[in-house]
Specification:
This protein has 19 helices and no strands. It has 338 residues and is mainly α.
Length: 338
């Protein structure tokens, strides 16, 4: 697809003719958005596509080009936890005549990322995407690992580690994925690491090893957003479960520094985990963390409409005291699926 091609290959048509201005503007903006999403600069990615002239020129472009635009908008707004905007972009994407597999994977994947545990409709779309994969067993779809990594994280957070294992285990053993798509492979490793932690298999060493490999991979390619939002947070949960809260809090502090610098709303997860793990919190610090969480939630509709975010804030003392979740949707987790 054009949005994945190197910028130097997108400036001209195969015959050497210049592209129409609208197409050239879309490709330039999409290239910036793609790079910013990988590096975790979500606001900059949004700015690249938030251009009235760019939107007005979409109508003259092909369905596939318009689908590429709305796909980026949906991904950006999902990462920003802007729920209405993300769902509106997914609706606009569905109106484009795009590949059915891509559409199913986008619908499922992005719903998995809204809120702390994913949108309530995500499981339905995961089922549709899995049915599509099964129907294409003789012709594997290139987007499968991307979908499976996010779907596995969603199922882990919903208390279904065995469902997550079924999805992600084949990808973890695919070395070609690690070489060509380090961000996706790292997320698969982290999902598998969480499967092991949640399953109570007692093999925290393997879970830690997978998480460390993913963290190292993200550091090498400078994917700071994924490093903070997925890698450091996962490693912190493992360290805390292995009775190493000091090390866990160091990892969360590193994630916090990155998220603050990038204005990343996933800071909410880091704030919650810090309050859960740090049993030495002073009353003043406990109150400060709750207020910080409330500010993030009030500013992001994806969290404002997230039942788990509201539940944690409402039961703040129980959360900080390490008490179990009262209404877990699946297998209980010390971190309530955060």
């Amino acid at each position: 697809a054009w949005e994945r091609a190197p910028a130097r290959e997108r400036r001209r048509r195969p015959g050497g003719d210049s592209l129409p201005p609208a197409m050239s503007a879309l490709q330039s903006a999409s290239s910036i958005a793609h790079e910013c999403l990988n590096s975790g600069e979500i606001d900059r990615a949004a700015q690249a596509l938030d251009d009235p002239e760019l939107r007005s020129g979409l109508q003259g472009l092909s369905q596939r080009s318009r689908a590429g635009y709305w796909r980026y908008v949906a991904r950006i707004q999902t990462r920003r936890q802007a729920r209405p905007e993300a769902l509106a972009a997914l609706e606009a994407l569905s109106e484009c005549e795009t590949d059915r597999g891509e559409l199913l994977f986008d619908q499922a994947t992005l719903r998995c990322m809204l809120g702390l545990r994913g949108h309530e409709s995500a499981r339905e779309w995961i089922g549709k995407a899995e049915a599509f994969i099964t129907s294409r067993r003789d012709a594997p779809f290139s987007g499968t690992p991307f979908f499976r990594s996010h779907a596995a994280i969603y199922l882990n957070r919903r208390g279904d580690p065995e469902g997550a294992r079924r999805l992600v285990e084949p990808s973890v053993s695919d070395s070609r994925l690690g070489d060509g798509f380090p961000h996706i492979f790292g997320r698969c490793q982290l999902a598998m690491s969480e499967v092991i932690r949640l399953s109570g298999e007692g093999d925290l060493a393997r879970a830690r090893g997978l998480a460390r490999e993913a963290v190292d991979r993200y550091r090498r390619v400078s994917y700071e957003g994924a490093l903070a939002d997925f890698g450091l947070v996962q490693l912190a949960k493992i360290e805390a479960q292995d009775n190493r809260p000091g090390r866990a809090l160091q990892l969360l502090e590193e994630a916090r520094d990155i998220q603050l610098r990038l204005h990343n709303p996933s800071l909410l997860r880091t704030v919650f985990l810090t309050a859960r793990i740090d049993q030495g919190l002073t009353p003043a610090r406990r109150i400060a963390l709750r207020r910080e969480a409330e500010v993030i939630i009030s500013d992001r509709s994806g969290f404002l409409q997230c039942p788990l975010a509201r539940e944690i804030v409402y039961h703040w003392d129980a959360w900080c005291a390490g008490e179990p979740e009262q209404n877990s949707p699946g297998e209980p987790d010390f971190f309530w699926g955060v």
